[in-house]
Design a protein that fits this description.
This protein has 192 residues and is mainly α. It has a single domain, classed as Orthogonal Bundle (Hypothetical protein af1432), CATH 1.10.3210.10. The chain has eleven helices and no strands. Helix 1 (3-13) runs parallel beside helix 3 (40-49), helix 2 (16-36) packs antiparallel against helix 3 (40-49) and helix 9 packs antiparallel against helix 10 (150-167). The radius of gyration is 16 Å and the shape is globular. It starts with a helix and ends with a helix.
């Protein structure tokens, strides 16, 4: 499927507001891919499809995890909205014919991040965070860093998310902690 076909199909499968967000993420991902020398076409596809499982109920997400034989940890059982990335990767493959593992992995980890993300995973994670429709304290700073230092932008984004989740009394997924710690250790090793 080419990008225009994917866009036409996903537009039918998600809410209009979610589609606008997905288009914004696609454009932000293409921009970041241009800055960081990543594959712009892969960034566009991952960006438009990143939320293809968003909007499904907790019951639907858990049912799809069972259907796809996916491991669901205790945090995801308590906060099933975290599953829309991993489930979305399966939907992107099954319903949209995406076979490229880089694209699928970028969709899979766009919500929590993970340790040692590749450039496409970083781009989609950050594009989802900074797309123009996002409006929260600190987003402008993260947008500025996104164009200069993607790792610094991701660290600030993770810090912001972790503080928010703590304030809301939620559980922090270990993949987010792993992503943050990995980037901080990488930066410390570079500076030493």
């Amino acid at each position: 499927m080419v990008l225009d076909q994917i866009k036409d199909k996903i537009k039918l499968n998600i809410k209009p507001s979610r589609y606008i967000h997905s288009e914004n993420v696609m454009e932000a991902a293409k921009n970041l891919a241009g800055i960081y020398g990543a594959n712009v076409d892969k960034a566009a596809i991952a960006g438009i499809l990143h939320d293809c499982a968003k909007g499904r109920t907790a019951k639907e997400l858990l049912s799809l995890c069972e259907k796809f034989d996916m491991h669901v940890d205790n945090i995801e059982k308590r906060q099933p909205e975290l599953l829309h990335g991993p489930v979305g990767a399966f939907i992107a493959e099954m319903d949209y014919g995406i076979k490229d593992e880089e694209i699928l992995n970028a969709i899979r980890v766009h919500t929590t991040g993970k340790e040692d993300m590749n450039i496409l995973e970083k781009i989609v994670f950050l594009a989802d965070y900074i797309e123009p429709g996002r409006n929260f304290p600190g987003v402008c700073e993260i947008r500025e860093w996104a164009c200069k230092d993607i790792d610094r932008a991701i660290i600030i984004a993770l810090d912001t998310t972790i503080k928010y989740v703590i304030a809301m009394g939620g559980l922090i997924h270990p993949d987010s902690i792993g992503a943050r710690n990995y980037l901080l250790l990488q930066r410390a090793n570079i500076q030493n």
